[in-house]
Amino acid sequence: MGPAQSAGLAAASDVTIAQSVPARSVRGGWLRGVGEYLRPQEPIPRQTYLAILIASAGGLIALWCVVTYAGLVEPLFLPSPTAIFRSGAEMTADGSLLQNAGASLYVIVTGWSLAVVAGVPVGILMGSFKAVEALIEPMIDFVRYLPVSALIPLLILYIGIGTSEKIAVIFIGTFFQLVLLVADVAAHVPREQIDVSYTLGASRAQVIRRVLLPATLPGVMDTLRITMGWAWTYLVVAELVSADRGLGYLILNSMRGLFTDRIFVGLLVIGGLGLGFDLLFKWLHRRLLPWSPKA
Amino acid sequence: MAPPPAAAVVAQSVTSSFPGRGPSAGGLKLSLRDVGVAFRARGGREIVAIERLSFDVADREIVSIVGPSGCGKSTLLRLVAGLVRPTTGEIRLDGREVTVPGADRGMVFQSYTLFPWLTVRGNVEFGPRLRGLDPAYCREVAGRFIQTVGLVGFEHAYPKELSGGMMQRVAIARALANDPEVLLMDEPFGALDAQTRVFMQELLLDIWQKTPKTILFVTHDIDEALFLGDRVFVMTARPGRFREEVRLELPRPRTLEVTMSPAFVDAKRRVLGIIREEAGRTMGLDGTHPDAAASA
Prior knowledge:
Radius of gyration of chain A: 28 Å
Structural class of chain B: alpha/beta
Oligomer: heterodimer
Order of helices and strands of chain B: EEEEHEEEHHHHEHEHEEHH
Largest sheet of chain B: 7 strands, mixed
Strand order of the largest sheet of chain B: 1-11-10-4-9-8-7
Strand content of chain B: 15-25%
Number of helices of chain A: 12
């Protein structure tokens, strides 16, 4: 292509650009503005982000207020914010909310902690040593596809319907997933980081203690956070099947009396506790592992 | 046609106007005799990564190794490090056979291998601390090498706070803090941008000038190989072996000026010629490579 031709082409494309600009602005301001925010993966201004966020949350709450206070839906299906707040206050005052939340917390923290204490070492061994992987992978791969809810009848038969059974449900629900997740974390410790330790004079025991273990910490921390989230699901399932206390029991019991507002209180408390744990783990991650790239 | 056997390595003196290999090149440090590595791939097919490699490296010599990817140059370093056991032959360092990794052979990898949970100082003193040396002494050693690589003021920084070039400087300091007999460098500057890379090459030569070490330096950057090395080995792929040795008798200390000298340009022309020929062969352009049909 000669220089004259390419110059002509450049001029031509200049013209198209010049034409397209007014054409677009004619189509109107705000629509184009929205288009600006819909480019895949393109960051948007923080203020805009926050504005959309607040509008979304506020809009939802506003919609809820409108449909409940205006009587557009039966309070039986969707109670108003004040109704929920009122029963929440009642349940707090008579101590039932605290008692149920405490019972659930006890079960979830105990079951999950046992799973962590047992599962993290097994996971690290499994991810680090191929022999251990071959030894336990068949069992774990089988059990983890069994929904823990399917095991509840068996657990009731073995252990009964008390607190221990709930703890067992949480343990089984989280242990196998935890082992696999931690094994994955350990298996992804960069090989070169281990090799370089040997060339720095580390013995095998030193490599494990001083390199492998610290290297898994951020991943393990993430795994703890994720499995804690899942544990809430298992807890509620266990408490719906058989319980005389706990947040799952509270929800089920409220449903029997058609106390929809109480169901919502239970849901809000579960959501709040779950969110609280999530934030706690994120805070711990930043606090305990300041060197982690994710911190 | 099979390529010429490894024994037919041609030692070529590019120029003889400057005597010596460096300020203090000494006696025999490292020797490889008939070293070969074969892996068994899935399906039982044997893959020869390195075939009957023999060479000697003098004390305080810098040997660069270039070659196409997959030619086994990284495997060669891992052999000397003791991370890979040779299938045939033997490797000797100061007369002792190498069988396991050890602190006497420090390694710097291309990927960032700093320990993210340790600060710059923690990383550099990692080796001395492993040996259970007095913490105050370890700290002093670390401080000295942090100064050597120009990172004073960053002692308490974590790797995530450092740039790629700074991380590799820490990796070099960490390897040097063990006072190794041999420094094995596997494309250590390969992930850095061009400017940082040149800076790191000059820094490495500067460090070598002050505390000369025997260095095996693997790279695919021909300029880098020639700028740093007393000798440059050109490797061929599949199986990996030495095709040619180019000796560079350029004066030390070297500055970037040296890369403009006729001797350097001559050597570069030679190495480029060999690599081009090899590339043609491995890509099957002349149809002589035994793997030409398989890899196509």
